[in-house]
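Supplementary Methods S3. Input chains for the assembly prediction are listed below.
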Amino acid sequence: MNMRFYRTTMKEEGNSANRPSNTAFTQQRLPAWQPMLSAGVVIPGFLLIGLAFIGIGVGLLITSRSIQVLELDYTGTETSSPCYQCTMSNQSNCVCKLSFSIGTLFKGPVFFYYGLTNYFQNQRKYGVSKDFNQLIGDVSYFKSPSSDCQPYQRVNGKPIVPCGAIANSMFNDTFKLYQIINGKEELVPFDGKGIAWWTDYNIKYRNPDYTPLKNAFNDTEKPVFWTKPAYELDTSDASNNGFINQDFLVWMRRAALPNFRKLYRRITEGNYKDGLPAGNYSLEISYNYPVISFEGTKKVTFSNVSWMGGQNEFLGIAYLVIGSMCVVMSVVMLIVYAKFRFPEED
Amino acid sequence: NSSKIQDEEKEQRHWEASVWSFLKPSLQLWYSREPQKDAIITVGLLVSLHFFLQGNAIKTYKYNVLTFIPLNLYEQFKRAANLYFLALLILQIIPQITTLPWYTTLIPLVVVLGITAIKDLVDDLARHRMDKEINNRKCEVLLNGSFQDSRWRQIQVGDVVRLKKNDFIPADLLLLSSSNPNSLCYVETAELDGETNLKFKMGLRVTDEMLQEERQLADFDALIDCEEPNNRLDKFLGMMQWNGERYPLELDNMLLRGCKVRNTDVCHGLVIFAGGDTKIMKNSGKTRFKRTKIDELMNYMVYTIFAVLILVAAGLGIGHTFWYEQIGSKAWYLYDGLNYNATYRGFLSFWGYIIVLNTMVPISLYVSVEVIRLGQSKFINWDLQMYFAEKDTPAKARTTTLNEQLGQIQYIFSDKTGTLTQNIMEFKKCTIAGRSYGTGIFVCLNTKTSPVDWSWNQYADQKFQFMDHLLVANVKSKKDKDAMEFFKLLSLCHTVMVDNKDGDLVYQAASPDEGALVTAARNFGFVFLSRTQDTITIMEMGQEKTYEMLALLDFNSDRKRMSIILKFPDGRIRLYCKGADTVIYERLSTNTQHQQTTQEALDIFANDTLRTLCLCYKDISANEYEAWSRKHKEAQLVMGDREAALDSVYEEVEKDLMLIGATAIEDKLQDGVPETIATLAKADIKIWVLTGDKKETAENIGYSCSLLTDDMTVHYGEDVNEKLRIRQTTRRRQPPTNFRRARQTPEEPFFTETGKNALIITGGWLIDFVDMACECEAVICCRVTPKQKANVVSLVKKYKKAVTLSIGDGANDVNMIKTADIGVGISGQEGMQAVMSSDYAFAQFRYLERLLLVHGRWSYIRMCKFLRFFFFKNFSFTLVHFWYSFFNGYSSQTAYEDWFITLYNLAYSSLPVLLVGLLDQDVNDRLSLKFPKLYIPGQQGLLFNYKNFFISLFHGIFVSLIIFFIPYGAFLQTMGQDGEAPSDYQSFAVVTASSLIFTVSLQISLDTSYWTFVNCFAVLGSIAIYFGFMFDIHSAGIHVIFPSVFTFTGAASNALRQPYLWLTILLTVGISLLPVICIQFLYKTIWPSVGDKVRPHSMLHSCSGHSVKVHLVRCDLVSLHPVGSEEQEEVRASDGGKEEEEGARALPAGQALPSLCLRLFSLTRLRRPHLVRAEHSAASCRPQRSKCKHQGDSPRRGGEHLS
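Predicted structure tokens for the full assembly:
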């Protein structure tokens, strides 16, 4: 018998050109771990995850509650609204004043946002209606803007720079905040620097290398809805013009949802470095941007931020709910497991 | 019931005759041969017949240079998905609706089509080569009055060809003459029907006499009128008109293409059918494009998804219409200068969404499926345990598209000869005059028997082994007259041909068992030396004697016996007869002896699964013979039902027989066949054996390979007929309006008796028995032709909608292999046709077990898991767009960056799931084999069906909902850590995309049940690739180079430095995964599947060694021997590979054994009570057998097979 065996092996060695290789991979014997959803892992796991989630939820909720937010609607649809008269006619340079008071110190740094609702910046066609090559400062595209910009590609035969619907519809209300101290209005200084993304300001948007900047815009038109050309957006600061104007950058970063806020200014200077003290304030709005036609509203928001950003209780509550459900489910699973364990004799 | 069959045949003939007369003017083949000319069709009208008459070239390929591209593209675009992507591509080119760039679809489509086309091209080139090889074979054709070398493809109908010994027959020929007397010509029909024995063909007397010379053949001028080409191998009807005489032509006069000329120096034939008209080609089914069930299902799912897609897109399009009317038209900032009305905008939005949501059916699905199948095929090719070392043949997956179907087989159709058996017959036992000789097969070698030494007999075949010395001694002493008569009969009563090769006798037997008997007689001193037309010469214990053969009463399946009437040298006339015991016993003389004892011996032989034949003789007086001979001659001339006439004449003489004894032959099964069949049966796979053999043989084999077991009731075709008739009458009696309902309600079972059933039927009729047959555990069909084999398969496929597998080794199995969903060829046996037309090929039947239960099951599970997950991951990916659309005015705005959409399926999410598709194992191979029940979910298609599809769909919907709405809630009114632009679209896209990647990666990690470092690498790698790519795409540099292509500059870095967004991602991922884990856990706890129950075993086994060890230990416990080196070596010798070796080496020796053994036993007992039963049986009866098997032949049959 052994002889027979040896004979076969001899034969194998002599004539085994087709013999498959004997490796762990080809024989499908790779060392492996076969995880199983065993009770010992799942039930304690759920309990731990649940507790962790509850912890995170509590943390988020406390943080969120500590954030101060003040939101004011200035659309002016109601007759009582100070901006009501601005909605009535097409008068330009309509200015309205919104008064409000702050009970306690509004801790700084305070961020000042404008907000729009029912405004579809995320509409696909609206979203693609811009020319990235223009915006990066490539003057060759000043002459022939991308067809994506239609119908804001050309006007009177001249190319529009910056072209497209997004640029065209840039938000153009402006705000001034006054604190009323002893009946006198004291201007709260706004800081408009660095409110856009660093990458937008330094990389994505660039002005063409022309001095003065105006020359680059020769033979081009400003967007139809704009009152000033791009190179004159900020008359007070020459370096805040063209495509790297902070307000322009903020506007060009499309919002994800139809109700959004965009950063307008920060309050970080002078007496207001530590925040807005309690008192009465007046917000002077130069009301230009039409929203009533599409049933939108306009808001301004004062807010301070924490490590988790602005106020939003959603996440904290969601964490709490999910965490508690995990704990509950771990108990349910324990009960079910105790009842239905694999019968050993099966 | 035989009258019914006759009726059927008559009907068939009648029908043929009527068709015949109708088609006669056009289809009749007229050949006139004029001197010095080749086939010329003389009748003018029939010139057009050249179109009907094929040349001898055959064509099996599909494409040529010109047709390849159009035909292949056509074939590929028949696939719903490819067509869908083509349509998408066209949509994306239309500027109004393009929402994604056109190249996102074109590039993958071209890649997919290209890969498939190259694969098809390679396949077709192989077919081209084969055809060319065959068509260029050489043969001699009579041209211009002399025989000249020619190619097969040049042969035409009407040519005369000359064939030499061992030539393949190039076309269907009418045998004209041969070098043998009476123009006898021997052929081997292995290619045609798989039978390796010789058959003889005979030319007409007139052609034999007149057409020997080349000149005569050249002058041959006859009119042949024959049936139209058909696929019946057992029938040919024709008529030759020559020199004013008409001669009937039958199959006996025909040499069919595919056969081989043997034992005949030269023969001449006239080509009747050539090329595709030949019977063998008519028998070969069309090459069919095989598809798996999952393929079909997948196609339907693609349709479903497409329907869902259209519905969703339509809904969103309508949404856009309303949105535009109410909001969009008023929003001055959205003015786009186009004067479209809301409805038209909705319509455009619909098409836009069709494009955006197209990723629900990702094109990479099909590529991935192909890749997975290719991988599975490689694993089959690489499997050492399906490698047959003796012949150096590895298993081979010849098609790479059917692997997962291997996990769904419900019916196996197996050829018998060469597939189940080795087709080697051995004379094992006999009973002579009431005394049995030959030892049992299962007697262990430690008894003193050794094979008989044949050195005293110079003619002995040394390969022949016999264990009983007593019988030899009896014969040698010449005292035992019965024994002498017994072997004399065996040496005389047969149809074996003898071939004298270098002084060595080589027998060519009509069936291997006849050969075995003649060989046995030869070794016992009765050597069959030669035969002529009417004499037989044998060497009778050293004396050469010649017997005159007066008549040969040939075997057929009705008679089940053959006889020969001989005139002895001393003038006596004696009839020798051998046949099945049932027919012989009816015809025994009243004063014959040993009836009782022989019957007992026969029963014992039958229980040993030996094939038995009874032998008897009868002395006939000269007068008696004269009288009978006259009748015989008359019967031979009967033109009508000649066979019946002959049978009744034979019947007259075959009576009052004197019993001599009986023989017992073993048709050796291949290794592991019974075990394999038993395991497959446990996996609920029904096995049908289809064989050309006679019923008894098939039944015997059925028992010996444990296809038929003692607890089964065997039903034969005859009683089945009765049952069927009852069923049909009841059905007929039902009012026709009820018919439909009656079909739908399950009919009551045929077999009312409880217990397992088995069915043995004869070919001929096969229709309407499927229902009944499928109720049986086992079915054996005997005497079936290749076409009938295929018919059986297609019947089951058609009426049972079952997944079928055919396995065979010979050319006669080609048809059935092609017809079945899966065709398996046994390689390394006779011929290669079966292998060439098969989908999988390996060397031994027993590998089928591993192919199905391991590779098939894994492939199925992997493919199902892959598909379920793939659909899930794309639903959860794509439907986020759907939720988002509610917040962006249904404007087909995507929720992610375009590049993420392009790369998601390509780079971010495909590798882990692809690896699951390639490597996953729910349980390892040993457990798969040990628990065949694990195979059943595959047969029932439980792992991937519409239910699973909708579960995936809902899972995807759920996850997409979470992935959209959690970030939505978080983004609703938030601002960043530093107050900057807090909720912009790009950050949102980054958050949803990251949540999706984490969810999908972790979900596949949860679904992976076989975690190797490769999987780990893939999952972590995918996440790393995602972040790597994203940061690259969002980097400053790439935006500067392509400002309008990469527009998400800084989005990733800005978003992902906010802890708040990370918390959002964490929550999203948590909510997406936790409920799934919870549900899975509860489901597994409450309704555990077989796999869930078995899986803990794999843990046990992997820590306590391999199952082989268990077998070994068990084996030794029952035989009460300590583990010897023998056992270990045996395991090493088996082709199991390294693992087993290690397992065996790791065995502790001596004392430690019982405790280990007991521990393993107790584990088994806990889980599987029936295994314990198996142990008992092993302990009670197996040791002897297993020992003996070790001794016997194969080292593979070790303790390994005990359970």
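The first strand of chain B starts at residue 138 and ends at 143. The longest helix of chain B spans residues 847-885.
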